[in-house]
Design brief:
This protein is of the alpha/beta class. 19% of the residues lie in helices and 26% in strands. The longest helix is centred in the last third of the chain and has 25 residues.
Length: 501
């Protein structure tokens, strides 16, 4: 196959989005829709990747440089300062591609559902089509608003002319006369339900020669990329058609309703793939999984679970309702109870987390750790088999193996100016309602009594406590109760006396 250069059209404003944000930066499954298009294009293995930017160019440029959102890198950005149509956008790449010999694949930046295997198959088709260009088409339930495909009549393998008659059985490979935009189509042409997806493949030399001939002879007074189709047909070398379904794969995003629909479709597609691969998803309609996430077999996801980012989740886990796992690594046999938030954290095999636990960035749980109700862990390591089952904050801490952290324990890691570290060595028992004022170390097998505030290092094997001496006052509660009851009786008597006057 010839060398391939990709041009992604990402310059449009997207007026119907009613947003200051560039359309291609609106998120689908927590990433810009443009990122999903570039993910799909990875299957093409192009030698050049150009992105045409225009509206909100600075923000799109900054996003393209974000290696988290666009991990592939290697993007060449070309600015279209004035948005004069799709043909004009591709014209802007002529200088960048000067001397390139091969196939140019043009893809809109607002089709986040397009699959990599579809684009690769389309390019393979074009390589054998003996045509200067090929057009990827589809048939949606409603073609309103889309450019219509007008095939050459009597083309080999069937096809349709401008009269809107039904297509033949063999659509792919037939030739195309032109594409007519919906706003420029006649009533008869609007009956055609085969549409332009905006994806074309063309010989580079032909493409830029044809682009030099297009004119803004349309209602929008723009330079349409689709006009190169008619130029090819007029020259006696009409383009080839590659028909593909389902149409939802090529739905462009023009407003918030379409954005929501695309995201729902993407999540349904991802859930279906995971279920086929051996994952149990109890309610796919409410479960949202990032396409980049990897999940092991026999894991069970309860309703309302969100797996965000490139998570790696092992086998035979149970993740219960309402939990959010974001850019994290979870081992095998982990039980995450309802309504936990796990962000850029790690949990090794056999951990039990939650309910209502919060693992913040750089929380690292070793095998068999229990982190329970309303426990927050931040930038801390917790050793094998240790437990913090209730109401604790563990921040900037190194906690060894076999440690028990009692309810209400806090590592006081911030002094108002800097963060400091707490070290709790193996086998330590921390009693409830303990404050560990960092920097401080509690030695191996030590015990910290409940209700203590620890400000100095605790030697290994020792008991540390910092309580005031308990004092009892005999009969205090009995005498206080008698005083209160006497006061109530006196007040009632005064009220009756005033009422009789």
């Amino acid at each position: 196959m010839n060398a391939t250069a990709v041009i992604v059209l990402a310059a449009g404003k997207g007026t119907r989005m009613k947003s200051e944000r560039a359309k291609v930066l609106h998120p689908v499954a927590w990433r810009p829709m443009l990122a999903h298009v570039l993910d799909a294009l990875a299957a093409v293995k192009a030698s050049r990747q150009l992105v045409v930017i225009g509206h909100a160019a600075d923000s799109v440029r900054a996003a393209c440089l974000d290696t988290n959102a666009f991990p592939g890198g290697g993007l060449e950005l070309v600015e279209q300062r004035e948005q004069k149509g799709t043909g004009h956008a591709v014209q802007m790449t002529k200088d960048a591609l000067a001397g390139f010999r091969g196939t140019v694949l043009v893809v809109p930046g607002d089709v986040p559902l397009v699959r990599g295997e579809t684009l690769a198959a389309f390019l393979q088709f074009h390589a054998t089509a003996t045509a200067p260009l090929s057009v990827l088409t589809t048939r949606p339930p409603d073609a309103t608003g889309y450019g219509r495909i007008v095939r050459q009549p009597n083309a080999e393998g069937g096809g349709w002319g401008s009269g809107g008659e039904a297509p033949g059985n063999n659509e792919t490979g037939t030739r195309i006369a032109r594409i007519v935009e919906h706003r420029d189509a006649t009533d008869t042409e609007k009956l055609i339900n085969e549409i332009n997806t905006g994806i074309i493949a063309a010989d580079a030399e032909f493409l830029f020669k044809a682009l030099a001939e297009i004119r803004p002879d349309n209602s929008q007074k723009e330079l349409y990329l689709t006009d190169v189709i008619a130029i090819a047909a007029k020259a006696g070398t009409p383009g080839a058609v590659y028909a593909c379904e389902p149409a939802s794969e090529f739905e462009g995003i023009n407003d918030r309703a379409q954005l929501s629909r695309a995201e729902k479709t993407l999540f349904a597609r991802v859930a279906q793939a995971h279920m086929i691969a051996g994952i149990t998803i109890l309610d796919p309609a409410t479960t949202r999984i990032d396409p980049r996430a990897r999940i092991g077999v026999d894991t069970v996801l309860h309703p309302g679970v969100e797996i965000r980012g490139a998570c790696v989740i092992g086998a035979a886990n149970v993740i219960e309702t309402g939990t959010i796992v974001d850019e994290s690594v979870i081992g095998a046999g982990v039980h995450v109870k309802p309504y936990c938030v796990i962000t850029r954290a790690r949990a090794a095999d056999g951990c039990v987390i939650g309910p209502f636990a919060h693992l913040r960035p750089e929380a690292d749980l070793a095998e068999g750790v229990h982190v329970g109700n309303y426990v927050e862990v931040k930038k801390s390591t917790i050793g094998k088999g240790s437990k913090a089952n209730h109401l604790a904050y563990l921040g900037d801490a190194t906690i060894g193996s076999g440690v028990n952290v009692g309810a209400g324990t806090i590592t006081c890691n911030y002094d108002g100016f800097a963060k400091h570290r707490t070290v709790i060595e193996d086998g330590v028992f921390i009693g409830s309602d303990t404050q560990l004022v960092a920097p401080v170390t509690v030695g191996r097998d030590a015990v910290v009594a409940a209700g203590s505030t620890i400000t100095k290092d605790v030697p290994p094997g020792s008991l540390a406590l910092s309580r005031t001496k308990q004092t009892e006052i005999a009969d205090y509660a009995t005498k206080r109760k008698a005083r209160v009851e006497a006061k109530k009786a006196s007040d009632a008597g005064e009220k009756r006396k005033k009422g009789s006057q």
